[in-house]
Amino acid sequence: MSFLIIMMKTLVNELAVTQSLLKQSASHDFLTSILNRRGFYEKFNALLSNQRENAPISIIAADIDFFKKINDKYGHDIGDYVLTEIANTIINLIGINDIFSRWGGEEFLIVLPNTPYEDALKIAEIIRKEIENKVIKYKGTKIKITMTFGVSSFNPMYEIDQCISNADKALYYGKNNGRNCVVGFEDIIA
Q1: What is the DSSP track for 9-70?
Q2: Closest of 170, 172, 41, 29 to residue 87, by C-alpha
Q3: Residue 183: helix, strand or coil by DSSP?
Q4: Annotated catalytic, 130?
Q5: Cystine design at 71: which of 79, 105, 128, 180 (Cβ 3.0–4.6 Å)?
Q6: Which residue of the set 42, 106, 118, 186 is catalytic?
Q7: Residue 56 burial by CB count (10 A; 0-12/13-18/19+): exposed, middle or buried?
Q8: 31-189 CATH fold
């Protein structure tokens, strides 16, 4: 009888671990281990429900410049390694309460609660410089990359997707005007 109880406890524990892994994989990017889009929306909605009224929230969209060339020249293994290195670099430069996700491909999204627009521009510039100065080493290959950043403010009058779109517009303005820069949405619509 005790053998059966031990087996049941073992199975219950294994099921709990599997369930935890499934929950993690549903909300996190498998490659970089940061949030995916689903995880982003879950965290952002939780942020909004706990955020002080009128507290500023800023959004940074970031994209690796010429990432396709990295994959084409060095292969997807190095491309994947670059993505994980960039994610780890950004994690070390943002706050513990910030929301960081892989938005798609080589694009990342950062939400900075309690951060005014001007401060978000400075944070994006710090990240940009750190990435620009970083040498990524993989099996004897050294790679230098740059990133372009778009910054916007969250406005509770709009859906989050509109505010992300604004950051994306600023990012693509930067892409079309030389790359390796930080562009604020409020600066291109002024």
Answers
A1: HHHHHHHHHHHHHHHHHHHB-TTT-SB-HHHHHHHHHHHHHHSPTT--EEEEEEEETTHHHH
A2: 29
A3: strand
A4: no
A5: 79
A6: 106
A7: middle
A8: Alpha-Beta Plaits (3.30.70)
Residue type at position 127: I
Going from N- to C-terminal start, the domains of the chain cover 1-26, 31-189
Cβ proximity of 36 and 29 under 8 Å: yes
Which residue in this structure is represented by tokens 């410049």? 65
3-state DSSP assignment of residue 97: coil
Tell me the whole-structure pTM to 2 decimals.
Answer: 0.88
DSSP code at position 105: T
- Positions of the chain with pLDDT under 70: 1, 3, 11-12, 15-26, 190
